[in-house]
Amino acid sequence: MRLQQALSSTAIHGVLMGWTLLALFPLALIIINSLKTRKAIFGDPTGLPTGNALSLKGYESVIDDSDFLMFFSNSLIVTCVSLFLILLLGAMAAHALSEYEFKGNTLIGLYLIIGIMVPIRLGTVALLNLIVSLNLINTLTALILVYTAQGLPIAIFIFTEFLRAVSREIKDSARIDGLSEYRIFFEVVIPLVRPVIATVAVFSMIPIWNDLWFPLILAPGEETRTVTLGVQQFIGQYTVKWGSVLAALSVAIMPVLFMYIIFSRQLIRGITAGAVKG
Amino acid sequence: MATLELVNVHKSFGETNVIKDMNLQVEDGELVVFVGPSGCGKSTMLRMIAGLETLSSGQIRIGGKRIDHQPPANRGIAMVFQSYALYPHKDVRGNLGFALRHAKVPKDEIDRRVNIAADILGLDELMDRKPRELSGGQRQRVAIGRAIVREPEVFLFDEPLSNLDAALRVHMRVEILKLHQRLKNTLLYVTHDQVEAMTLADRIVVFREGIIEQIGTPLELYRTPENQFVAGFIGSPAMNFVQAVCTNDLVSIADVGVCKCSAAAAGKVTLGIRPEHLKMDPDGALTGTVQVFEQLGGESFVHFSMHDGQTLIAKLDGEYQFSIGDTCRLGIDSGKCHVFDEHEQRVS
Fold first, then answer.
1. What is the pTM of this model?
2. Which CATH number is correct for A67-275, 3.40.630.30, 1.10.3720.10, 3.30.565.10, 3.60.10.10?
3. CA–CA min distance B96, chain A (Å)
4. In Å, what is the CA distance from A180 to each residue of B73, B223, B298?
């Protein structure tokens, strides 16, 4: 019996570790190769950057030859502002849908959530026309608006489920204590769903940070380029500066990794919250 | 003066009438219990008094002043919920003082009231703990403390003991009674447990399907229930109801005269007799066969079936020993009979 348990535990750990290696392998490849000479990248792709292979030329080129800092800050601004709007508006919408009875509650809810099923890229041409007519082409605002619209449906969907589970009595208690509905939302309800906020934040952030499509179409200008677009400039028609590309990508990965590490505890709690009655 | 009046209160959710034309007068300092089965409207009524639900029509007055248009915080009420509803991210002191801090009460006044409440409820040792570090009974005391701190005119308790285990429930019931004797506030208490109603109440209001069936002191409801519903609801185990016939002022079961009834009730009637008013009697009027026998030590519950198929439960003091299938004769305390007509209304 104990042998069986030990074997199944080993098997489970084996599968999980194998999957982790598989997932982390491309990441590791990018980082170690970003620190190597071009020769070493092609000569020995999986080798470590030691001795002759070590070179920081990639990173130097990224800093000297391009406005990488600006691309990075553009991405950061777009992602952070979009995330803030998605979380704030998504949570507020979900709270309204789950807490208050009003005519059209179900219909509005469906309307807001149906965005999950409709790929936003189908509307690219219409979006481009709209952004042009609003004179927002080549602005970060255009990207922020589009990403907020993209992220709201799934955020509202996830929030609604968890906000419904917040006990009605605690909100009633706050009403009797004299809190306005806004204060109840921010001071009573939000602290109770912190793990969900972290989960939604991580899920929403990644497709925004990594996106190439909308920056290319809506904000390809020099001043508004994001990090994903910025990396493109090292990929030429005839030649690719691989060291720089990999260095840029390594730096671009960092914020997402960083966010994930901070939020991972909350994220795990959020994912498993529904599984255990507590 | 914290009197409470309900005047022609009516509440419907869409097509469904939940509260039907309710009128009630609660005196200052009274502990009134709303009792009734699930879905009867008692919690809805309490929530309307608290301001958490609107009225469809009618008025609610506290101290003579109409309050049904006021927001909950301005009504002079404080509510204790079934699930305690403590703020999980605040400690006990934070929970107790939250409403006062929000109302911008001066800090020393907050501290004074919080310390009084903590002292009354024995919370002094727990002030720095978060709710998740407290037991169910402790959390309930914090919830009560939060209500005391507001110094309301009327306390509203919504099934506060339902989440506690049986032993703790008995203990907390006594605590609430002592608290009421000490504070002397008007208190409205909602429960589906008739034992809590009987032990706590100055008066009980029995609800059924949005209507008040009867209002009275616990003993009034026990001795003279006005209809079969109230008779069957109050008392545990529930009153036995037996089909009987009333002729010439005498109620008979299976042609055996059992007790007197008024002339108004001629014909088929329902005889109500509480389990504790049945006794073993070799010359008793009723004959039954033992079906189930529950031995509790100090008392026994015996379930008898009569020859016409009807069952009776008898509560007998002391230790008895029965076997399934034994035949016994039961006597009825004739002064303790309740007779109901075909509309389930009391006739005598």
1. 0.82
2. 1.10.3720.10
3. 11
4. 10, 48, 55
